[in-house]
Amino acid sequence: MGKTKHDLLLHVLEELLEEEIKKFKFKLNYMDLREGYKNIPKGHLEKADVVQLVILLIEYYQEEYAVEVAINVLDDINNKMLADWLRKASAEDILQEPRHDAVWNTRVMSAKVPNVDHRGNYIASIKEQFRKLKDYNSKPGEWVSLEDRYTKLFIVKKYHQTQDKEHELLSRGKRHTEIMKKPRNDEDSHITVEHLFDTLADGTSTKKVILQGVAGIGKTSTVCKIMYDWACGKLYQGKFDYIFHWSCRELNHRTKTVSLAELILQNWKYPKPEIKEILSCPDKVLFIIDGFDELRSPKDNENKSLSCDLDTPHSTAAAVVESLLSWRSLSEVCLLVTTRPSALEMLETHLKADRWAEIMGFLEEEREEYFKKFFRDEEKAALAYSYIQDNDVVFTMCFVPLICWIVCTSLCLHLSSIEDLVQKVSTTTQVFTHFVTVLLQSHGRPQTNTQHLFHNLGLLAYSGMKDQEVLFEESTLKKYNLEMSKGTSTFLTQLLKGDIIVETVYSFVHLTIQELFAALFTFSNKEAAFELLKEAFIEKKSHLNLTIRFLFGLNNDSSLKPLKKYYTVTGTGIPMGELLKWTKKSFLFCQGQDGQSHFLLELLHCLFEIQDEEFVRNALEDVKEMVFLGNNLGQDDQQVILYSLQHAKELHRLTLVQCELKEKYVIKLLPLLGKCKQIYLSASGLSLSTVNMVCAHVLQSLRMTRLHLVYEEDDRMNCTVEASHERDPCIITFDYLPEETVTAICDQIIPAHPGIVRLDVNGIQGRQGFLTALKYSLLESECKLETLGFNIENPNHEAFRDICEHLATHHSPGKFALFRRGSEDDIHFGYEAKDEEKSDDRLQKKKKSKGRKGRSGTHPQCFPLTWFLKKKKKKNREDGIAILSCLPKEYIVDTVLWVTSKFTPVTLVMDDNSIDDELMETICEKLNNAEYKLQSLSLNSNILAQESMASICSLFHCNTAVSLSLRYNPLGDEGVKILAACLKSKGCTLKNLSLSSTDLTEDCVPAIASLFSKKNTLIQLDLSFNNLSNSGVKTLCSALKNKESHLEELNLEYNGITDDCEREFIQLIKNIPSLKYLCLDNNEFTSTSASRIFGAWDKYHDNEEEVQDEE
Question: Which Pfam family, just one, is annotated for this protein (predicted)?
Answer without folding.
Answer: NACHT
